[in-house]
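User: Teach me something about this protein's shape.
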Amino acid sequence: MPGEKDLNTLLKTMRPALNPGDFVFCVLPSLHVIDLNEVLLLFKEAEGYTVIISKELADSLQLEYSFVAAWITLSVHSALDAVGLTAAFSQALAAGGISCNAVAAFYHDHIFVGKKDAEKAMEILWQLAQLAA
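Assistant: First, the predicted structure itself:
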C-alpha cells in the first residue's frame, strides 16, 4: 500500500503517539561498541556514526550526549515524496517554542523533541490535526 501524499489528509490523520522512554543522539567513531538491534536510527556522517538510542543504553555504554529527547511517532503512513508535512508540524512546534528533530522512515515520520517539551508538543500536534479535520 502506498503512503499518503495529500497534506490535508496527512495532517488530519497523523495521530501522534508519544513513545515511552528517553532518547539521545550519540556519535560513534565505529559501530563495534554497540548492538545494532538496540539502535533506533543510524546515519553515517563524515564525523562518525550518529545513532539515536535509549538514554539508558547510552549511559550503560558511557556514551556522551547533550540532548535528552522524547520520541513522537506520527502514526499515519506518509509517502516519502509527500510535500509539506514536515514543514507543517515543525512550523507549529516552532510557534510553540519547541525545537524538533524529524526523521522520515518508510512508513512514518518520527519527531524528537526535548523531554521537557513532550506533553506540550503532543498538544500542539493534536491541535494541528484538529485544525485540518
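Now, about its shape. The helical segments are 7-12, 55-60, 85-95, 118-132. The chain has a mean pLDDT of 96. If you'd like, I can walk through any region in more detail.
User: That's plenty for now, thanks!
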